[in-house]
Automatic annotation (TrEMBL):
It is a single-pass membrane protein. The chain crosses the membrane at residues 42-60. It comes from the Eukaryota. Keywords: Membrane, Mitochondrion, Mitochondrion inner membrane, Transit peptide, Transmembrane, Transmembrane helix, Ubl conjugation. Component of the cytochrome c oxidase (complex IV, CIV), a multisubunit enzyme composed of 14 subunits. The complex is composed of a catalytic core of 3 subunits MT-CO1, MT-CO2 and MT-CO3, encoded in the mitochondrial DNA, and 11 supernumerary subunits COX4I, COX5A, COX5B, COX6A, COX6B, COX6C, COX7A, COX7B, COX7C, COX8 and NDUFA4, which are encoded in the nuclear genome. Signal peptide: none annotated. SUPFAM superfamilies: Mitochondrial cytochrome c oxidase subunit VIIIb (aka IX). This is Cytochrome c oxidase subunit 8. It is found in: Mitochondrion inner membrane.
Length: 69
């Protein structure tokens, strides 16, 4: 590395340091209605079916994907 590298890098990042960073105004409130047991069960079941079931199917059939026909 040459002795000019730190000066060049400082020149590239210098203007970016002066830009204001926008802050998100996120405020949380308590829920209007509490989730029931059935709501939680439906949510967990749908997550299982959407994400874990296809991944499990692919992993169980991995050997057939490796074979060339």
């Amino acid at each position: 590395m040459s002795f000019l590298t730190p000066l060049l890098l400082r020149g590239l990042t210098g203007p970016a340091r002066r830009l204001p960073v926008p802050r998100a105004q996120v405020h949380s409130k308590p829920p209007r209605e509490q989730l029931g047991t059935m709501d939680v069960a439906i949510g967990l079941t749908s997550c299982f079916l959407c994400f874990l079931l296809p991944a499990g199917w692919v992993l169980s059939h991995l050997e057939s994907y490796k074979k060339r026909e």
